[in-house]
Design brief:
alpha+beta; Gyrase A, domain 2; Topoisomerase, domain 3; Neuraminidase; 19 helices; 33% helix; DNA topoisomerase type II (double strand cut, ATP-hydrolyzing) activity
């Protein structure tokens, strides 16, 4: 890659230079990356604008499109921006301009648009030849002092004009309107905030420069999105996001129930999360409805006009609205996460992720610098005017002599300069004076203006020499902005609310997302699983692959959890709705879960969290495990019983009653209290019965008061009561006695 490659020799080799390709690519890609970061994707922390937005606002100012002036066609504005400042496509400029006018995109719009500027459904704005716009009060604040040397200017791309490097920014625009963009190797994502709260936090920072993020969050509790919604993050996570400059906010739609009478109701959504297109959201919900993923929902209607009004109709009046909405939040964009990545251009040059207090501090420092520059500019203007006024006063005091010199001298200017020690500017002003100004009253006017300007000069000099006075003035300016955008005003009121997510039963929400239907679960000897629709009583009609047969079949619902336990002591969980359909022979279980090849299915059953199971290995070890512990949320499953080949898990029986009966392969029966078996979530277990050779045959839990019941191969039922079982009653881990007469030859309690 680093090797130089010379081009083939042509006739004109004089101007060909060999270039190292790797170095050239690195250099040019770096130049492109820096250009993207600095001049396109990241906003400046001081005015919160990217170059395209800054140029649009500045061009509108230059065109005189103040809030109180007439609207102008957007095509004219775009042409002005493109021709003078921003040499990019007209469509990209118009898109940026239109976004600044959208009240659902910008918390405080910078452009006042007239015409179709798009909507929350995702429709595009009308073409720029149809729409008109002008500045808003916010963009006027951002530009306040631009003609008073408040900021630096640089040459435009063709050097025929100049443009501001940054705007004076009397409005806290970066946080108030937010920003998002993707650069090279970095991105930015800042939500909008409430201007009133930002001003409060900034005023606190002026008084307490070392204020922590925790303290500032008392003033700024979180973002304030243009489209409202409800933030459900807790305070600690919000503080952490603002402290590090990275994080995110979970925003939910705002909803309420409307009573329809007779116990019926419907849910009405009035606010949706920021940057979610309403039409796309409704389409997605409708798709889920058709796919039967929202069994609690009957229908969705969009009844929006100017305001948002999306109506959800529940399946029945008995549906819990909270559970319905929780299932909606899980599956749709009614809940979305807005990322926070406060990656901005610090000092207009350095891209870095900043914390909340750093962003506000840098804005305040910028405001102070703007104040100093504007004050110096005014001071220079006062000095120039005072110079001229003092010259005019000299002329009034010596008016006859002035007139004589002008009438008699060929070159009156140098004569007057020498006679009264005047400057060029002063004499020029005297010579340009109108005869009308010679009236007596004018002298009083000049003296009055001279005194007023002298006073103002003293005040400005005092301001520039005192840090405290400068911060007081900055605070006063911020106070004026706060009044203009106070929460009491319509534009300033907080739109996004805060709430904790309601406590709901996770299980109920999960079930609310599955259509409840009866199924029959079928597992074959070789581990193939399928779910047939409906409850099938006769399993004899089921077909299997050659050499395979029925292992287990049981009725269930699609909302049920199916527990599968293997001979290796592992438990797996499958949702009834996730099982393959009944056509064909189903699918091998090994595809659906990570089952080892040397393990087989021991049993499968419906999960009942209130139940306990007795799990037993071939060697006769066992323990009681609560069924809730068998639930595994991953493909890997959960190891419940620790067994190593040739030993395997052999039996799993529901726990009931107060005694355990164990039969060994040696046809010896032992009965002992259930209390002697420990309850664990995982382990090897304890010995239930001792054998010289062989292992366990069967186990059963029962209540001693009901007696031990078994069936023989002929279907006859035998019962042994407590007294009759006396000789088999002993402690756990003893050998037991030979089974009573009539016990099945199979060694099982069920024939």
């Amino acid at each position: 890659m680093g090797q130089e490659i010379l081009p083939p020799s042509g006739g004109d080799d004089d101007h060909i230079q060999p270039v190292d390709l790797k170095a050239a690519l690195e250099q040019r890609y770096l130049a492109y990356a820096l250009s993207t970061i600095m001049h396109r994707a990241l906003p400046d922390v001081r005015d919160g604008l990217k170059p395209v937005h800054r140029r649009i606002v500045y061009a509108m100012n230059e065109m005189g499109l103040r809030p109180n002036s007439a609207f102008r066609k957007c095509a004219k504005i775009v042409g002005e921006v493109m021709g003078n400042y921003h040499p990019h496509g007209d469509q990209s400029i118009y898109d940026a301009l239109a976004r600044l006018a959208q009240d659902f995109s910008q918390r405080y719009t910078l452009v006042n648009g007239q015409g179709n500027f798009g909507n929350i459904d995702g429709d595009s704005p009308a073409a720029m030849r149809y729409t008109e716009s002008k500045m808003t009060a916010v963009s006027e604040l951002l530009l306040e002092g631009i003609d008073q040397d408040a900021v630096d200017f640089r040459d435009t791309y063709d050097e025929s004009n100049s443009e501001p490097v940054v705007l004076p920014g009397a409005f806290p625009n970066l946080l108030a309107n937010g920003s998002s963009g993707i650069a090279v190797g970095m991105a930015t994502s800042i939500p909008s905030h409430n201007a009133h709260e930002l001003c409060d936090a900034a005023l606190h920072l002026i008084k307490h420069p070392d204020a922590t993020v925790e303290k500032l969050v008392e003033f700024i509790p979180g973002p304030d999105f243009p489209t409202g919604g409800i933030i459900i993050d807790n305070r600690d996570s919000i503080i952490e996001s603002y402290r590090t400059g990275r994080g995110g906010f979970r925003v939910r739609a705002k909803w309420q129930t409307e009573d329809l009478g007779r116990g019926g109701y419907q849910i009405v959504i009035t606010e949706i999360p920021f940057q979610v297109q309403k039409s796309r959201l409704i389409e997605k919900i409708a798709e889920l409805l058709i796919a039967r993923k929202l069994p609690l929902l009957e229908d969705i209607r969009d009844e929006s006009a100017e305001d948002i009004r999306v109506v959800l109709v529940p399946k029945t009046r008995s549906v819990d609205p909270t559970i319905l909405m929780e299932s909606m939040f899980k599956l749709t964009e009614l809940e979305s996460r807005f990322p926070l990545n406060m990656n901005v251009l610090s000092m207009g040059r350095i891209p870095r992720v900043m914390a909340l207090n750093e962003v506000l501090k840098e804005w305040l420092d910028h405001r102070r610098e703007v104040l100093q520059r504007r004050s110096r500019f005014r001071l220079a203007a006062i000095d120039r005017r005072l110079e001229i006024l003092s010259g005019l006063l000299v002329a009034y005091l010596n008016i006859d002599e002035v007139i004589r010199i002008i009438r008699e001298e060929d070159e009156p200017k140098p004569v007057m300069m020498a006679r009264w020690d005047l400057t060029d500017n002063q004499v020029e002003a005297i010579l340009n004076m109108r005869l009308r100004a010679l009236r007596k009253l004018e002298e009083f006017e000049i003296r009055k203006e001279f005194d007023e300007l002298t006073n103002e000069k003293g005040e400005i000099e005092a301001l520039l020499s005192s840090d405290d006075k400068q911060w007081q003035t900055v605070a006063w300016e911020i106070g004026e902005v706060k009044k203009k955008f106070a929460k009491a005003t319509e534009v300033g009121r907080r739109r996004t609310q805060f709430a904790d997510a309601p406590e709901t039963d996770e299980e109920a929400v999960q079930q609310a997302m599955i259509e409840k239907e009866p199924i029959t679960v079928v597992i074959s000897e070789k581990g193939w699983i399928r779910a047939l629709k409906g409850h099938i009583a006769d399993t004899a009609t089921l077909t299997f692959k050659e050499g395979d047969g029925l292992k287990i079949a049981f009725p269930a619902q699609t909302t049920d959890k199916i527990l599968i336990v293997t001979t290796g002591g592992k438990a797996f969980t499958l949702g009834g709705d996730k099982l393959p359909g009944g056509r064909g022979h189903g699918e091998p279980l090994r595809i659906m879960v990570d089952m080892d090849n040397d393990q087989a299915v021991l049993t499968a059953f419906l999960h009942d969290p209130s139940r306990k199971q007795l799990i037993v290995s071939t060697a006769g070890n066992g323990f009681v495990v609560p069924e809730a512990e068998l639930v595994a949320n991953t493909r890997k499953g959960k190891q419940i019983m620790n067994v190593a080949l040739p030993e395997e898990t052999q039996l799993l029986v529901p726990v009931s009653g107060d005694h355990v009966a164990v039969v060994g392969e040696n046809r010896k029966l032992l009965v002992f209290p259930l209390a002697q078996v420990p309850e664990m979530s995982r382990g090897k277990g304890v010995r239930l019965q001792r054998y010289k050779d062989g292992g366990i045959s069967d186990v059963r839990c029962f209540a001693i008061s009901d007696g031990l019941i078994w069936e023989d191969s002929a279907g006859r039922t035998f019962t042994k009561n407590k007294d009759e079982l006396a000789e088999w009653l002993a402690d756990r881990a003893t050998a037991g006695r030979t089974v009573p007469k009539g016990f099945p030859r199979s060694g099982k309690f069920a024939g």
